[in-house]
Amino acid sequence: MKEKIFEYAYKKYGTSPEYLWAKYPDTAVLRNSGTRKWYAVVMRIGADKLGLEGGDEKDIIDVKCDPLMIGSLRLTAGILPGYHMNKKYWITILLDGTVPYDKIFALMDMSYKLSCNK
């Protein structure tokens, strides 16, 4: 699923993943090319760190979100509070097929718009 997300980001916004931390080679940032602000972070994280059962690792994407929508979005299966981000403005989406691509892409679009200058 990560490859489809990166492909979408490149086609829609001309952005490519940036791997900023040698210690975390599976963590990629998608950055608004105009403002240099992050609009998505794609990573692999332990289920327990997300508040989920099991010890396996999960592929996730964190995206910025309109705070007025976060409460209702978090009622959706596969959408969680933003991992390692400000939970007032970010959500985590599981990349396990629970959330369909069209919804992920729509949330990425919102996040990108929120990363633009006002």
Task: Figure out the total of helices.
Answer: 3
**Secondary-structure element pattern, one letter each:** HEEEHEEH
Can you tell me the number of structural domains?
1
Name the average pLDDT: 91
The percentage helix is 25-40%
Distance between the termini: 31 Å
CATH architecture: Alpha-Beta Complex
User: Which class best fits the helix and strand makeup?
Assistant: alpha+beta
The gross shape turns out to be globular
Write the layout of secondary structure elements.
Blueprint: H1 2-13, E1 28-31, E2 38-46, E3 57-64, H2 67-73, E4 79-81, E5 90-94, H3 101-114
Antiparallel strand pairs: 1-2, 2-3, 3-5, 4-5
